[in-house]
Automatic annotation (TrEMBL):
It comes from Bos taurus (Bovine). PANTHER family: OXYSTEROL-BINDING PROTEIN-RELATED, OXYSTEROL-BINDING PROTEIN-RELATED PROTEIN 1. Residues 952-963 have a biased composition (Basic and acidic residues). ANK repeats lie at residues 47-79, 80-112, 175-207. Keywords: ANK repeat, Coiled coil, Endosome, Lipid transport, Lipid-binding, Repeat, Transport. This is Oxysterol-binding protein. GO terms for molecular function: lipid binding. Belongs to the OSBP family.
Length: 1012
């Protein structure tokens, strides 16, 4: 491209040098010079203006004519959003305005100030001329809209309605028919839907006093018009300046546009006019507005995904401005909610839907019957004619039979036509289905490709990272074990690093390497082993604060194991035996004296299967309704998975035995953390419980019994109730796992309240579980993390424990970490808690913990200055386990430590010893438990035995049986009634909960549903 030629063209067009402009255009036409006729100036005198803009503004008619003849774009925009017509009208160039209109200049284009050409001119004659042309153009657009609606040209109709200044959606023809009337009597469903979404009024009448519904052809079109009960006025675009709050940038001024149920915001008004550089948008489906009575400018919008957006009208706006915005948002929200819910189909409707194949079979049977009837009537007629019937009766009798025969033939023809119509309809549906499947395939493949590229990029970044120093705290893990998984399978070692000023250097004997039996010199790598019973650490150095100074005067600080001191010897002995052989003692549990240590069959390899291959077919579906192949399951029901909360019941017994409420809170917090520890590396999905399914577990050795029931199917809610055998506690709650699919990960938010009652102290604690996320759904190794805040409340004392399950973050520094404080009702910090939910939990004085955090932050900043840190986004890749051990702060008390998993755990779905026994059953137990107990589920039992095909068949059979039972209840208008739980307010938090109704342990199991 010749920049010189373009600059000359701009210069001559500005100065009206018609001959030079003509010569340049001729050389451009002969391709002797390559230049853009619509080029924009770069100098101060013509910045952002094209030659046509300049010629129109300065009134050079000949130049304008030559440029238009040479192909210059008549509606080209400059940087201010003006067309040449704007510039000619503004300067009062009547001849140029007429010339531009002859070349189809658009009078409806809005510039950056929101003005059309007629609104910028000061010449009354030009304004009248533009208004007349605008009316003519508008009428042409209306005629095109009416024609598109009549002919069913949906694409053309959509393009017309999506114009910056669309034609009136309620315009009419000579008979008074609106586009909606035209679409209705021609049965163009898609056109009618688009018109309704654009604000077409279904109540308008034509000159014959008929509404679109009166002209509608076919039941389907009538259903569309009847079902779309929206506000009967055109949904207007609403826009204006608003302040919007964001997490990182605070309050910023945007130009906000409300159109077709979507709220969009732009940096400036011209961007909104041309729909460019949009900063963000939000669909207003199910959106709710709230205001603050103390602030007349502020309002909030809560959207369907629970996100909240804060807006503020400018202070110099009219008092009514906020109310206008709220009213407009309410209208657009109702509009968006209505149309987004139109295509949703209930489960019952899905089950009752009849395909054309079924209709065809039914009609074919009808045809056979009809043909048989026709044949029989013919034979009957023949018989009568050949018989000796009385002559006076024969004519009337034959006439009657012929009428029946004719009716039969007509019915047969009608049925054939019906079959033809249904077959044709099925062909259209199949074509549309193929189109949607192709779109789905393209999108899913694109997403998978992006995820794979992202995965490879992250791997290349990890490989290209500079080596870390041997003294880095991120490196000490490998000194303990050659393989990252060894610490997970054989028990983790908590270490104290000498590289921080909180630890005292001390000599320590060589400790054995757990991987190969060799020894390591701990002094050489700068760490020391922390024994199970105590942790000895050194003096604080050079602290400035009073609390830190007092700590520095201590000669030694010892961290005691809270576990070993307070835990009863019997419970401790059981835990030790459980870590070896799942407890081989004489303790009775559901009639089983010795628990099994493995499953009947190891798990199948999932290496040849991909979860993404299933989820890619379910984009847009609710995850709780997706049927996953049984290969991705583990042989446990979700009710049994819930029972794993009770693995560390000794912490509840310990809490009940303590006199200090703060120490009791420590034990309860440790129990809440330990409840999710079994999920580590458990990427198998538990079986969805069937409605009415139950599970019981009695553990005399652990001192509890538990009953759970699936109380709801949609949404899936599981309720449980456990109690101590010594009447020392009651533990109950209900869980609704709300699932979200984020493309590369699946997030499970366990909705529901957990309640623990310590009966001896008349105390009740409530909390909710953290969010669980499974990463690398598309590519890479699956891994799990827990994150979110858990607030444990003692409703008697008012004490609270707020635990923060930290997300992984960059480089995995925060992986699995848990931190928090115990506070009294005045929010005074009483104890600090820290650890990892996969390993252990410690308690320490809050001043000591804050001092450690302050120093740790300082060290981290120094490392950042010495390292080249990546600024990439947060990764879904599982971080390398650089620090699989918890640094123990001096003075800490060990509250809980996870027991090592059995050696065969990796082959047994990564089950813990406790999980290994949840599904075991014998003949004596079968005679005691109810028939709804999930130990008796055939699909879970088959999978546990390694019979994958049978498990898949049984799973499908049970789901179909459950679906059929629900349909039968729906037809008989019978509501499902839970057996052992009832819905009501939680007695402590007041939230809706499922509470135990009692009488389960009476063993009177009558009238139980047949669910298996």
């Amino acid at each position: 491209m010749s920049t010189d030629a373009e600059q000359q063209l701009l210069h001559h067009a500005r100065n009206g040098n018609a001959e030079e402009v003509r010569q340049l255009l001729e050389t451009m036409e002969r391709n002797e010079v390559i230049a853009d006729i619509n080029c924009k100036g770069r100098s101060k005198s013509n910045l952002g203006w094209t030659p046509l803009h300049l010629a129109c503004y300065f009134g050079h008619r000949q130049v304008v004519q030559d440029l238009l003849k040479a192909g210059a774009e008549v509606n080209v925009l400059n940087d201010m959003g003006d067309t040449p017509l704007h510039r000619a009208a503004f300067t009062g160039r009547k001849e140029l305005v007429m010339l531009l209109l002859e070349h189809n200049a658009d009078t409806t284009v809005v510039n950056g100030n929101g003005q059309t050409a007629k609104e910028v001119t000061h010449d009354k004659e030009i304004r009248n001329m533009l208004e007349a042309v605008e009316r003519t153009q508008q009428r042409k657009l209306e005629e095109l809209l009416l024609a598109a609606a009549r002919e069913g040209r949906t694409a053309e109709l959509t393009a017309l309605l999506n114009r910056p200044n669309p034609p009136d959606v309620n315009c009419s023809d000579q008979l008074g028919n609106t586009p909606l009337h035209c679409a209705a009597y021609r049965a163009h469903k898609q056109c009618a839907l688009k018109l309704l979404k654009s604000g077409a009024d279904p109540n308008l009448k034509n000159k014959n006093d008929q509404k679109p519904l009166d002209l509608a052809q076919g039941a389907e079109m009538k259903h569309v018009l009847v079902g779309n009960k929206i506000v009967h006025k055109a949904l207007k675009r609403y826009e204006g300046p608003l302040w919007k709050s964001s997490r990182f940038f605070g309050w910023r001024l945007f130009w906000v546009v409300l159109e077709h149920g979507v709220l969009s915001w732009y940096r400036k008004q011209p961007d909104a006019v041309h729909n460019t550089y949009r900063q963000g948008c939000k669909h207003l489906t199910q959106a709710v507005c709230t205001v603050k009575s103390t602030d007349s400018c502020l309002f909030f919008i809560k959207c369907f995904d629970d996100t909240v957006h804060s807006f503020r009208v400018p202070k110099n706006s009219l008092q009514q401005t906020r109310e206008d915005w709220l009213e407009a948002i309410e209208e657009h929200s109702a509009y968006s909610t209505h149309y987004c819910s139109q295509d949703q189909v209930t489960d019952d409707e899905e089950d009752d839907a009849v395909s054309a194949v079924d209709l065809k079979e039914s009609l074919e049977k009808a045809q056979i019957c009809q043909q048989r009837l026709d044949k029989e009537i013919s034979n009957f007629l023949k018989m009568i004619k050949e018989g000796d019937m009385a002559q006076e009766m024969l004519p009337s009798f034959l006439q009657k039979v012929e009428v029946v025969a004719e009716a039969s033939r007509e019915t047969c023809v009608a049925l054939s036509d019906c079959l033809h119509l249904f077959t044709k309809q099925e062909g259209v549906r199949n074509f549309k289905l193929e189109q949607e499947q192709e779109k789905n395939k393209i999108l899913s493949e694109a997403l998978a490709t992006l995820a794979t590229e992202h995965h490879e990029l992250e791997q290349s970044l990890v490989k290209g990272s500079p080596p870390l120093s041997i003294f880095s705290e991120d490196e000490f893990y490998d000194a303990l074990s050659e393989h990252p998984g060894d610490a997970e399978r054989k028990g983790r070692t908590c270490v104290c690093l000498n590289t921080t000023p909180y630890c005292m250097k001390r000599s320590c004997p060589a400790i054995p390497n757990q991987a190969d039996g060799s020894t390591l010199n701990t002094q050489a790598v700068g760490f020391s082993e922390i024994p199970e019973e105590e942790v000895t650490a050194g003096l604080f150095e050079g602290q400035n604060s009073e609390s830190e100074g007092s700590l520095s005067r201590l000669e030694a600080v010892t961290a005691h194991s809270f576990d070993e001191e307070a835990e009863p010897p019997s419970s401790r002995q059981h835990r030790m035996s459980e870590g070896k052989d799942c407890g081989g003692g004489d303790a009775l549990s559901n009639g089983i004296k010795k628990h099994r240590t493995s499953l009947p069959s190891p798990m199948f390899s999932r290496n040849d299967f991909s979860i993404w291959s299933i989820l890619r077919k379910c984009i847009g579906m609710e995850l709780s309704k997706i049927t996953m192949p049984v290969i991705f399951n583990e042989p446990l029901s979700f009710l049994q998975r819930l029972t794993e909360y009770m693995e560390h019941t000794y912490l509840i017994h310990k809490a009940s035995s303590l006199a200090d409420p703060v120490e009791r809170m420590q034990c309860v917090a440790a129990f809440a953390v330990s409840a999710v520890a079994s999920q580590w590396e458990r990427t198998g999905k538990p079986f969805n419980p069937l409605l009415g399914e139950t599970y019981e577990l009695v553990r005399d050795d652990l001192g509890f019994r538990l009953i759970s029931e699936q109380v709801s199917h949609h949404p899936p809610i599981s309720a449980f109730h456990a109690e101590g055998l010594n009447n020392d506690f009651i533990f109950h709650g209900s869980i609704y796992p709300k699932l979200k699919f984020w493309g590369k990960s699946v997030e499970a938010e366990p909705k529901g309240t957990i309640t623990l009652e310590l009966l001896e102290h008349n105390e009740a604690y409530t909390w909710t579980n953290p969010t669980c996320c499974v990463h690398n759904i598309i590519v890479g190794k699956l891994w799990i993390e827990q994150y979110g805040n858990v607030e444990i409340t003692n409703h008697k004392t008012g004490d609270k424990c707020v635990l923060n399950f930290k997300p992984c973050g960059l480089f995995g520094k925060e992986l699995h970490k848990v931190e928090g404080y115990i506070q009294d009702k005045s929010k005074k910090k009483l104890r600090a808690l820290y650890g990892k939910w996969t390993e252990c939990l410690y308690s320490v004085d809050p001043a000591t913990f804050d001092a450690y955090k302050k120093n740790d932050k300082k060290n981290t900043e120094e490392k950042k200055n010495s390292k080249q840190m990546s600024a990439s986004e947060e990764s879904d890749e599982m971080p390398m386990p650089d620090s699989e051990s918890v640094f123990v702060i001096p003075g800490s008390v060990l509250l809980w430590r996870i027991a090592p998993r059995p050696p065969n755990s990796a082959q047994m779905y990564n089950f813990t010893s406790f999980a290994m026994v949840l599904n075991e059953v014998d003949k004596e137990m079968e005679s005691v438990i109810p028939k709804t107990d999930c130990r008796l589920r055939p699909d879970i039992r088959a999978m546990e035995n390694g019979e994958i095909d049978q498990a898949s068949e049984e799973k499908k059979r049970l789901e179909e049986k459950q679906r059929a039972a629900r349909k039968n209840r729906s037809k008989s208008e019978e509501d499902w009634k839970t057996r052992w739980f009832h819905q009501g307010p939680n007695p402590y938090s007041g939230a809706q909960d499922w509470l135990y109704s009692g009488s389960y342990w009476d063993r009177n199991y009558f009238n139980l549903p047949d669910i298996y």
